[in-house]
Automatic annotation (TrEMBL):
Keyword ATP-binding (UniProt): no
Stored SUPFAM superfamilies: FlgN-like
Region: Disordered, residue numbers: 133-161
Family per similarity comment: Belongs to the FlgN family.
InterPro entries for this protein: FlgN-like, FlgN-like_sf
Protein name per UniProt: Flagellar protein FlgN
Function field: Required for the efficient initiation of filament assembly.
Highest classification ranks of the organism: Bacteria, Pseudomonadati, Pseudomonadota, Gammaproteobacteria, Thiohalobacterales
Length: 161
């Protein structure tokens, strides 16, 4: 494979992945808004769109691995950077690659943030359900007997009161 052909294909892949990551970032923002407003329809829509973008990214990653393999490089970060250094003496691809990595990091941070919001909501819901069932909303702990204590307060569930 010649450097010019590799550079052209790599440029197209990086640009396509950058556009996909921008779309994914917008979806993650919509997902966060849906979590904040508890809009289940919007949350489901965001989940479907997120899964589609992830499939797109996986396809691009497979294509990138094939390209790097044909050029004689590994498909890890070092291989990509070595390939870029080989095929792009202008440094343009290096800048695009760095921008892509920054976008990827943004997506990961937003996804972690959304995951934390989901976990907080899940804990709140579990606690509310425990109260309704007449259980302690506190997490299970070990009793003096060494067995787990479910936090049952011995009271009747709110639904039976």
């Amino acid at each position: 494979m010649q450097a010019a052909e590799c550079r052209s294909t790599l440029t197209a892949l990086i640009e396509r992945e950058q556009h996909t990551l921008a779309a994914l970032n917008a979806i993650l923002d919509a997902e966060f808004q849906a979590l904040q407003t508890q809009d289940t329809a919007a949350l489901e829509q965001a989940a479907v769109a997120k899964a589609e973008r992830m499939q797109d990214i996986e396809g691009m990653e497979r294509r990138l691995a094939e390209l790097l393999g044909h050029a004689g490089y590994g498909h890890d970060r070092d291989g990509i950077e070595a390939c870029i250094a080989w095929c792009d003496s202008t440094g343009v691809l290096t800048g695009r690659w760095q921008t892509l990595l920054e976008s990827l990091q943004q997506c990961q941070e937003r996804n972690r943030h959304n995951g934390a919001a989901i976990e907080t909501h899940r804990r709140h819901t579990r606690s509310a359900l425990a109260v309704l069932r007449g259980q302690s909303p506190a997490p299970s702990t070990y009793a003096a007997s060494g067995h787990t204590d479910t936090g049952d307060t011995g009271t009747r569930p709110l639904a039976k009161a």
